[in-house]
Amino acid sequence: MAKKPDEIAKALGVSITTVRLVLGGKAEKYRISKATQARIREYVEEHGVKFDLTARSLKLKRTNTFGLIIPRLANPFFAKLSEELEHRCRETGYQLIISCSNSDEETEKELANGLVQRNVDGLFVVSSTSGSQQHLGNTITKPMVFLDRDYGNTDAPVITSSNFEGAKDLTAAIAKAAGNEPVYFLIGGSNQPTIIERARGYLDVMPENAGEDWTLRSARNRTQDGEQMMQTLWDKLGTAPQNLMASSLPVLEGALAVLRERLGHIPAQLRLATFDDDKMLSFLPNEIWSIKQQEPEWAEAALQAMTQTMSSEQPHSKTIATRLIHRPKDQ
Amino acid sequence: MAKKPDEIAKALGVSITTVRLVLGGKAEKYRISKATQARIREYVEEHGVKFDLTARSLKLKRTNTFGLIIPRLANPFFAKLSEELEHRCRETGYQLIISCSNSDEETEKELANGLVQRNVDGLFVVSSTSGSQQHLGNTITKPMVFLDRDYGNTDAPVITSSNFEGAKDLTAAIAKAAGNEPVYFLIGGSNQPTIIERARGYLDVMPENAGEDWTLRSARNRTQDGEQMMQTLWDKLGTAPQNLMASSLPVLEGALAVLRERLGHIPAQLRLATFDDDKMLSFLPNEIWSIKQQEPEWAEAALQAMTQTMSSEQPHSKTIATRLIHRPKDQ
DNA sequence: GTGAAAGCGCTAACAT
DNA sequence: ATGTTAGCGCTTTCAC
Fold it and tell me: Which residues of A touch B63 (CB under 8 A)?
């Protein structure tokens, strides 16, 4: 349907250049006559045009494309972040290509490589491991912005959230309600930088003995890790805790599943605190505090850091504030 | 770091063509000597290569890229579907570009246009409206596969899920538990093809009067639509229903929010049924039935339909089965 | 066995 | 005021 520039040129008896100049908005600069401009525009109005961005990219050595590597789209935070980032990129004239590494170091490297071969103009990466972040930093010469995980071994800008401050707020909120009772903290993925910060925030607020007596740790942060930690805690207490904190939603899910299994239900008087927010937390009758990420701010900061890097300005790493959400107990 | 073919050629004193032939796996065909092959491979082993896929695409008129247009990534179903599809595309040697239309017809057209200009080899689209599906079908000459919404006005293959059958199963399950009590159905987005099918399934199982007496409808399926429908229902009944069905999760969220607001809690004896599944439904103490989509099967079928279209085979539309999940009531 | 050359559609500098 | 041209890096065909 849509005509290519050379077809338009032939149809109107002008040169391809003339067509391109007019359609490229350079008509005035090269003083193409109004009459010719009108004829071309009219033709386009009727038939449409089809430019080939591939050829343009080859010539300009720039694709107006960014790559984004995240662990998983099934994770609501990354999904929302991707959506926001994609939207802003498009507004700025860039197409975003989203790929999932599945938290695998090798996959992450392959993805980055593939995107570089496609000549993306820049790369956003949520790096799975310290090693892969370092590798990418050394290997890739394109503008890069790291997101969420700061392993502290790159010169590229890193956008993180205020995990430490957020954890302090979250812990303080549930601890106040708990009074003298212990607040147990299930920590999944305890070697990830984000989680380390969350644990640090918790310990900053809690008494000395909390680190040893009230925390449980697991290498990963899946539902089954939450289950396993809750089982350990149950066995230790011989009953359900009164106040429970989880380092992420999957961990909370696992913990609650175990409680339901042992008790037949989730006790309504149990106080809960968790990182990451989800509308469905409102389904629980319990009093709950949660930490909500502000994805729009993340996307904004990420794109800005990328723009700065590309224009050789000093790019700024940034920490995005979180928000504490409180859901009161059912009456 | 990585060398480009011409740099390798110069370094080894051979022609660019020779380098390309070897690295492109065409060495045997053009009888490049083993010795030369070895030298080139060795050099690459040490320094790495960097091909430019942009130039390749320009020459071959094929980008090994597919586009995917969905309403929102924040919707967990589309996020999971995207993840699965992206994964399979990559296995097949394609890069997937995901864009969100925000359910806006104009945006959807623009996105499709942009992707075509980038010379994607094919397009997967979850079309927001009948009009845009028709428009795309008439405008775009690339291989296309439509997902989820079948407006019945395209020759391109459409992958849908068994909304009618799923709705029958879901309705039958809750109706059986409800006995003679009414099962109210909150229908959000009542003019979308998927929702129409769900409503049809409900009516197929329920008695004559259900369509008039037990259903509530809203043009969209957001949380606020669920709230509004629940309010209407409450005002009609003067109390909370005993059995409630929702056409999607946001609608359920809205409905439950209203109940909590009026009652101070969500009554545990309320039976619930909803389309779309989420792990967090387990947070509710209620007896719940839900309909789970099988995203891997979706992705599989979508990619297969695309492959068939591209090889000019007769592409097959396909309906993906859903699964009924039952969560018993807390004890 | 290896190399040279044409051409994909575009941009930008240079002719006419 | 409009047209011509070189070259981006790749594939493919043909020449040495």
Answer: 54
Q: B70, B143, B140: which is closest to B104 by C-alpha? A: B70
Tell me whether residues A282 and B63 touch, CB distance under 8 A: no
In angstroms, the CA A240 to CA A295 distance is 34
Q: How far apart are CA A311 and CA B26, in angstroms?
A: 41
Across all strands, nucleotide nearest B27 (CA–C1'):
C1
Cβ B308 vs Cβ B280: under 8 Å: no
Euclidean distance between CA atoms B79 and B100, whole angstroms: 11
What confidence category does residue B1 fall into, taking pLDDT thresholds of 50, 70 and 90? low
Report DSSP state, residue A327.
E
Nearest to B205 by CA among B164, B260, B248: B164
Is the CB of residue A144 less than 8 Å from the CB of residue A137?
yes
Mapped to the 3 state alphabet, what secondary structure does A76-119 carry? HHHHHHHHHHHHHHHHCCCEEEEEECCCCHHHHHHHHHHHHHCC
Tokens at A84, concatenated: 């926001």
In angstroms, the Cα distances linking B79 to A75, A184, B74, B314 are: 8, 32, 7, 29
Q: Which pair of structure tokens corresponds to residue A162?
A: 């205020």
Partners of A99 in the beta sheet? A69
Task: Give the range among A325-329, B12-16, B190-194, B233-237 with minimum mean pLDDT.
Answer: B12-16
B250/B237 Cα distance (integer angstroms):
22
Residue of B62, B72, B73, B263 for testing the chain A interface, max A β-carbons within 10 Å: B73
Alpha helices in B48-129 (DSSP H): 53-60, 76-91, 105-117
Q: How far is the CA of B307 from the C1' of D14 (A)?
A: 34
- The sign of the dihedral angle between the CA atoms of A55, A61, A65, A69 is positive
Distances (CA, A) of A264 to A234, A267, B268: 14, 9, 13
Angle A182-A183-A186 (CA atoms, 0-180°, nearest 5)? 130
Torsion of CA A84, A157, A72, A97, to 10 degrees: 60
Mean pLDDT confidence for B152-171:
96
pLDDT of residue A234 exceeding 70, the answer is: yes
pLDDT exceeds cutoff 90 at B25: no
The DSSP result for B166-233, as a single string, is: HHHHHHHHHHHHHTTS--EEEEESTTSHHHHHHHHHHHHHS-TTHHHHTEEEESS-SHHHHHHHHHHH
3-class SS at A124?
strand
Asked if strand C contacts A17 at the CB level, meaning under 7 A, the answer is: yes
Decide: pTM greater than 0.85.
yes
Query: Could you give the CA distance from residue A67 to residue B122 in angstroms, rounded to a whole number?
Result: 20
Q: Is the CB of B36 under 7 A from strand C?
A: yes
Res A177: pLDDT:
97
Instruction: Give residue A299's Cα distance to chain centre.
Output: 8
pLDDT per residue over A139-177, tens digit each? 999 999 999 999 999 999 999 999 999 999 999 999 999
